[in-house]
Amino acid sequence: MSAVISFPIKENDIISYNPATGEEIGRVSAASAAEVETAVEKSREAFQLWRKTSFAERKRIIMRAREVILDEMDEIARLISDESGKPVAEAISMEIAPVLDLMQYFAKNAAKMLKPEKINIGLYALLGRTSKIVYQPLGVIGIIPAWNYPFSIPLGEIVMALMAGNTVVLKPSELTPLVGLKIGEIFEKVNLPKDVVQIITGDGKTGAALVESGVNKIMFTGSVATGKRIAESAAKTLTPFVLELGGKDPMVVFADANLELAAQAAIWGAFCNSGQSCSSVERLYVEESVAEKFTNLIVEKTKQLQQDSGSKETTDIGAMSSEKQMKIVEDHVAEFEKAGAKILTGGKRNVNFKGTFFEPTVISNATNEMRPMQEETFGPTLPIATFKTEKEAVELANDTEFGLTASIWTGEVKRRTRLAEKIEAGTVCVNEVLYTHGIGQTPWGGFKNSGYGRTHGKFGLMELVQPQHIHVSHITLVPNAWWLPYSPIALETFRGFARHFASGSLFQTLKLAPQLLRRIKELRNK
Ligand code: TXE
Fold it and tell me: How many domains are there within the chain?
């Protein structure tokens, strides 16, 4: 009994590079459409057995997988860092620790969360009926993640899918295939039954084949453009999907906030993972009266950050994931300058290194009219704009096609909730920033172009099951009043339904009893 990695290295189709050094760290094959199909077929067979396992058995396997991860934590962190460029510190704090927490949470709570539920059917209960919901697994879940959190995002989704009784085919990003294969290895070590989790490596073509393969749901994380392509393709087979797309997340800082803390939060929110988080701070709006003081604090702190290879323990800012991503950042910084914004620190590629390092960059005098304040940068840039009033702050924050997360900083208690609900984003944090993807209990997902559906929390688990309604009539001798044939007595009864029963009031409904009895008598005599 073991989880099988379906397509081990056989041709040298995809080369994985360390973005910090430019060195090759491994090669994997790209699965063809036919290989994807075979994997999905095997997954479907495995599903027939896996769906019958108890929650206790699923929990046992997930908890054992946690142990393997804990035992191999430093090795896994190093692999994540080598393949993605992020510091090992972040591989542990932002990927391994949060996903371990998610694993224990869903392992221990999925049974309770997916327990059959009785539905209160109101006055229909008087007619001797009951309803309940049972949660059925969907079948084969296709997971297509990006490269920015190559361990925690797919692993979290796998764990939730498995706990719900599904099987999984994961296609990791072509930039981080080795981390994807590592996930497969972990499940192999804990003797997950064969083909319950399969890893197929490949690029966008393999991903597209997975979408077309007839899986029962696609969980996608990546760009808006690819998300739209997936939605279009999935429509052909009516394959449902969850799309976790980009963000242009605002951080709004009022003069009454703890500015020192807000500045620390802003640089972490903007620069961790070299700014390559869908929920990273991409726009900062600060109240004009404290803008200078706050900006100085940010610049001062940014200048102290250590940029180096992610494998060093003291590195704050590692390499970016790819040259392609660097080019987007270079373009945005140049565009900011051209449009009249000021680069206060950073602003260029760090030439002290061979790899793809971009200096943490603070930009002032930004305005929403500038193109890079609307497009996702996904890099270590922190553009700062100012506002005068609360109304203006809300308008600026909402002036975007995205709506993943937002962050508000204020000392005023009433403003916290008053403002939070006016911001158009799937998650609004007050006096906090970025990190709630790490809380497995809370829903994750965006408004507007930031996505469709939710991962994490109860809403995320519900994406991985189909609710089945089971309705039972406990009265087996009497026909229903609304059945055929119709008659003047029937019509009068239906008027009574509309007037009395449909009011939801028991008192009103009792008035209907004599008419209902007449109708039932009529039907029984037919
Ligand atoms: O993502 P892609 P990329 C944003 C960010 C970044 C941009 C491009 O702005 O600059 O997206 O990043 C697979 N059918 N985000 O190019 O192309 C692909 O193999 C099925 C935000 O890396 O969307 C990979 O596994 N799958 C984001 C995954 O999709 C396809 C995280 C993501 O690739 C496919 C990353 C297709 N037609 C980037 N084409 C976030 N929300 O966190 C590609 N893929």
Answer: 3
